[in-house]
Write a structure and sequence with these properties.
Rossmann fold, alpha/beta, four-stranded parallel sheet, elongated, 2 domains, binds beta-D-glucopyranose
């Protein structure tokens, strides 16, 4: 396949995706961003009109221990290989130092473009300076990289929107706008070193905090951050299921020992929700009436199975295949020396600059709508025991 053919196929495909996703995005966060703006790839050191076969793309993923990153890495690598690029895909076992040396190795191996899903969004600035000095273009994948000028583009889902969906789901389920009841809520937040976790929490807390202030939602553990900025006080390091489980066990043992019941648990993602569901089971909660509303994110298989078993009320699905498609498009545009398409040039300030971003739309899945995951081919019916 000639370079020209490859470029136009990818760019044309991307145009269709952009049109679709922007429609969905404006529906849920109309004040954000402007569609279809572009960044100049060549001005950012992108390899102008390189043959894909001569372009090495380093892909740094955080960990194999969480289902989604395995899918993300494999899908992106496959797309890039199909387009003729050379790739180096590395997982860092959630260890920051390991990720830094993997990125160093990619630079030494002659990478032209780096795609990085960071573990700690603040720890990569020095190694990215080395990358910039070598003329490498850097795409932050899913998680923003902070405190550096040397991140050129960012592709992610509407992270604030994810949290909003979780908060609004809780409001709808309990009819909080109209109820005269009070409900016990236990909120959790994601890993303190992950920039996304701040957005997830803010999206949910902006919806829920008014009900905490009015007394409709009561937080018996007292672990209700005073504002969005205090989210790290309830963050679960490394998004660990085990840590979330022990934290939930502690809260249940310390604050619910007199027969009180927890009605809602705000969990920012599925790995935490898995641990929280274990803690609930250990404390005698069984699916059915009186089982708390438990939120999540990612539509991990174990959590979809939990949803079908009545142990989790919802998840926010981010079709990571579309993120891979978008990043593969960015890589192709950079390699072809073309402008890189983004649709948000306002929301993601990393402390040094506002990073041009492509935002994709997330989607709520409940036990009644898991068929969406099957119909889209994300899972087979057999995967879900259907
Ligand atoms: C991702 C989530 C994921 C979490 C833990 C976040 O940065 O956006 O999808 O659940 O990391 O891996």
């Amino acid at each position: 396949m000639s370079n020209t053919t490859f470029t136009w196929r990818r760019v044309a495909a991307m145009g269709a995706v952009a049109a679709l996703s922007f429609g969905a995005l404006t529906a849920c966060s109309s004040e954000r961003g402007d569609s279809g703006s572009t960044g100049d790839a060549s001005a950012d050191g992108g390899a102008a009109s390189a043959d894909p076969g001569d372009v090495l793309v380093g892909i740094a993923m955080p960990t194999k221990s969480l289902e989604r990153w395995n899918r993300d890495g494999a899908h992106l690598e496959e797309l890039l290989k199909d387009d003729g690029f050379s790739t180096s895909l590395q997982y860092a076992d959630n260890k920051v130092d390991q990720q830094i040396s993997q990125v160093e190795n990619m630079i030494n191996d002659g990478a032209d473009i780096l795609v990085v899903a960071s573990i700690d969004g603040t720890a990569l600035a020095p190694v990215l300076q080395t990358a910039a000095d070598a003329g490498i273009t850097v795409i932050a994948y899913d998680r923003l990289i902070n405190g550096t000028d040397n991140v050129d583009y960012y592709a992610t889902f509407d992270n604030y929107g994810v949290g909003q969906m979780q908060g609004e789901f809780i409001v709808d389920q309990l009819d909080l706008e109209n109820t005269t009841e009070t409900y016990n809520l236990e909120p959790f937040a994601g890993s303190p070193d992950d920039n996304n976790a701040k957005f997830f929490f803010a999206g949910a807390w902006d919806v829920l905090q008014p009900y905490v202030e009015s007394g409709t939602l009561v937080v018996p553990s007292g672990k209700a951050p005073a504002s969005d900025d205090d989210w790290q006080s309830i963050g679960i390091q490394g998004w660990s299921s085990d840590t979330a489980q022990s934290e939930m066990e502690n809260r249940l043992n310390s604050f619910y020992s007199g027969g009180e019941k927890v009605d809602v648990v705000l969990s920012p993602n599925d790995s935490l929700a898995l641990g929280i569901a274990q803690a609930l089971a250990g404390a005698g909660y069984t699916p059915g009436d009186g089982y708390p509303i438990l939120t999540g994110q990612d539509a991990d298989k174990a959590n979809v199975l939990n949803m079908l078993a009545g142990k989790q009320a919802m998840t926010v699905w981010k079709d990571t295949r579309t993120l891979g498609d978008q990043v593969a498009t960015m890589v192709s545009e950079i390699a072809a020396g073309q402008e890189v398409t983004v649709n948000d040039t306002e929301s993601y300030d990393n402390g040094n600059k506002v990073v041009p971003t492509y935002l994709l739309p997330p989607q709520v899945i409940t036990p009644d709508t898991v068929n969406v995951l099957v119909d889209s081919g994300f899972y087979t019916a057999a995967d879900l025991g259907l």
